[in-house]
DNA sequence: TCTGGGGTCCTAGGACCC
DNA sequence: TCTGGGGTCCTAGGACCC
């Protein structure tokens, strides 16, 4: 009997669009896009025309005139994806979910129960199809990375098994873009050197690989080619940063625009931190100008914060610093706030002794001002828990004017804190 | 009619410490 | 007067992934 691969990668096909086609049978077999101003997800029928996620709606319509736009049923996506993941759990406890719609499975301990990996893969596919009604592709290989490549090759609605010993034969003809970590920019760089396939990439000398891709990615490619890739499937950890951003179209870079947007973003970010009893020391803002060039500014504080007003103020100072470095830019198209360097926030925050007021009293937790702000946030959080998020707090007119994506969509992309 | 929102990770330079 | 090497942390930019 030939050896069997033990790592599976299961990946729902065009997930959001497939759910819409599941919920509304009249959409099945037709090119559809979830979203409007921007394509959040496209069905395979639409992808055939070149429609893809992140694309401007008008551009998508240009490529595919019969494209149907549908409003997303965002609250259904999480629920349905969770049901799919529950199916995976039936085959092994070693499931590593890496996003809403895909996961790795280590089935090395399950083969005596269910049969070899390829049998498990087919069982997963038929159960997800029968019980949930969605197409899912599965890749099986000896390592995670390779299993992921295999599932991409298997799409749509297929399964690809890479048998041990046949890795290079499988990989070598594939385009380099299928490797995790090689995106459009690197692909172009490689193409300029005549490298288009994994085989060509693997054949190039190690040092030039490193020079082209950097130490880490270069080493990864070597490992992949030598089949020494990571195979450990581990439970997904907590997020190491929390952020929020808002595209603004084209707005003047003035305080009356910036302040309410930052307030709104800080409210989202700090609220999520407090909900999970976390706080962060490093605040990073990103400012994208009207010409799409973006800059970042960050500041690491001596202590961790999770207070909305404090985060707003730190972010505002950073944005001003970015803007004064680019005084020529009069318009901005996006603002973002991210908090990293996260720590667990003891709930006894308020009980900390009140220190004599330092100059930065406002941001120091436990100080008089800091305690006041903390208390305000606690009240807001409590009201929201009881009456819903909209009951109190920022409702930015600037943002609602531009009508970005629904909050429910944002929440789908949030990682566990 | 330009181009969403949530993240992770890498690189490189500089400050600072031992 | 000139000078090593390692480690850690911080900042800015950027590529990439879903």
Helical content class: 40-55%
Low-confidence stretches: 350-358
Arithmetic mean pLDDT: 90
Please give the alpha-carbon distance between the first and last residues: 45 Å
CATH topology of the largest domain: Dna Ligase, domain 1
How are the strands of the biggest sheet laid out side by side? 5-6-1-7-8
The CATH class label of the largest domain is Alpha Beta
Number of extended strands: 12
Along the chain, the helix and strand elements come as EHEEHHEHEEHHEHEHHHHHEHEEHEHHH
CATH superfamily of the largest domain: DNA polymerase, Y-family, little finger domain
The main pleated sheet reads as:
5 strands, mixed
How much of the residues is beta strand, in percent? 15-25%
- Overall SS class: alpha+beta
Individual helix count: 17
CATH architect. name of the largest domain? 2-Layer Sandwich
Number of domains: 3
Please characterize this protein's 3D structure.
The protein has 417 residues and is an alpha+beta fold. It folds into three domains: 1-163, Alpha-Beta Plaits; 172-225, 5' to 3' exonuclease, C-terminal subdomain (DNA polymerase, domain 1, Orthogonal Bundle); 241-413, 2-Layer Sandwich (Dna Ligase, domain 1), CATH 3.30.1490.100. Helices cover 43% and strands 21% of the residues. The chain has 17 helices and twelve strands. The chain has helices spanning 15-23, 44-47, 57-63, 74-89, 111-114, 117-132, 144-154, 167-171, 184-192, 198-203, 206-213, 215-225, 255-275, 308-325, 368-387, 397-402, 407-413, and strands spanning 7-12, 32-35, 39-42, 68-70, 95-99, 102-106, 136-141, 159-161, 241-252, 278-289, 294-305, 331-344. A five-stranded mixed beta sheet has the order 5-6-1-7-8. A four-stranded antiparallel beta sheet has the order 9-12-10-11. The protein has a three-stranded mixed beta sheet with strand order 3-2-4. β7, α7 and β8 form a beta-alpha-beta unit. The longest helix has 21 residues, at 255-275. The protein is globular. The protein binds a DNA duplex (18 and 18 nucleotides) through α3, α9, α12, β9 and β11.
């Amino acid at each position: 009997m030939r050896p069997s691969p033990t790592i599976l990668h299961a990946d729902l096909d065009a997930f959001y669009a497939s759910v819409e086609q599941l919920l509304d049978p009249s959409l099945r077999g037709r090119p559809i896009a979830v979203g409007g101003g921007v394509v959040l997800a496209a069905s395979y029928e639409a992808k055939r025309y070149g429609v893809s996620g992140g694309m401007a709606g008008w551009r998508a319509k240009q490529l595919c005139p019969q494209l149907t736009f549908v409003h997303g049923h965002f609250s259904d996506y999480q629920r349905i994806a969770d049901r799919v993941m529950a199916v995976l759990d039936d085959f092994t406890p070693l499931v590593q979910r890496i996003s809403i719609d895909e996961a790795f499975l280590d089935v090395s301990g399950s083969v005596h129960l269910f049969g070899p990996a390829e049998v498990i893969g087919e069982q997963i596919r038929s159960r997800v199809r029968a019980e949930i009604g969605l197409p899912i592709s599965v890749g099986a290989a000896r390592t995670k990375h390779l299993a992921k490549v295999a599932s991409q090759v298997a799409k749509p609605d297929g399964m690809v098994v890479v048998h041990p010993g046949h890795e290079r034969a499988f990989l070598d003809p594939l385009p380099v873009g299928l490797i995790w970590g090689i995106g459009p920019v690197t692909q172009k760089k490689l193409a300029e050197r005549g490298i288009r396939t994994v085989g060509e990439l693997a054949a190039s000398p190690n040092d030039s690989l490193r020079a082209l891709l950097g130490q880490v990615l270069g080493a990864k490619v070597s490992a992949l080619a030598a089949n020494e890739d990571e195979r450990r499937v581990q439970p997904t950890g907590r997020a190491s940063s929390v952020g929020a951003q808002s595209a603004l179209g084209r707005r003047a870079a003035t305080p009356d625009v910036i302040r309410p947007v930052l307030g709104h973003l800080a409210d989202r970010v700090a609220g999520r931190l407090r909900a999970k009893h976390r706080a962060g020391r490093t605040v990073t803002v990103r400012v994208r100008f009207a010409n799409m060039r973006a800059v970042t500014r960050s500041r690491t504080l001596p202590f961790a914060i999770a207070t909305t007003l404090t985060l707003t103020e730190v972010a505002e100072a950073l944005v001003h610093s970015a803007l004064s470095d680019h005084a020529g830019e009069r318009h901005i198209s996006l603002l973002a706030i991210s908090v990293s360097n996260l720590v667990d926030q003891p709930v006894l925050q308020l009980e900390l002794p009140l220190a004599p007021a330092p100059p930065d009293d406002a941001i120091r937790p436990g100080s008089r001002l800091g305690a006041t702000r903390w208390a305000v946030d606690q009240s807001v959080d409590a009201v929201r828990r009881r009456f819903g998020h909209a009951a109190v707090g920022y409702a930015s007119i600037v943002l609602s004017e531009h009508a970005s994506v629904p909050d429910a969509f944002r929440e789908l992309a949030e990682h566990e804190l």
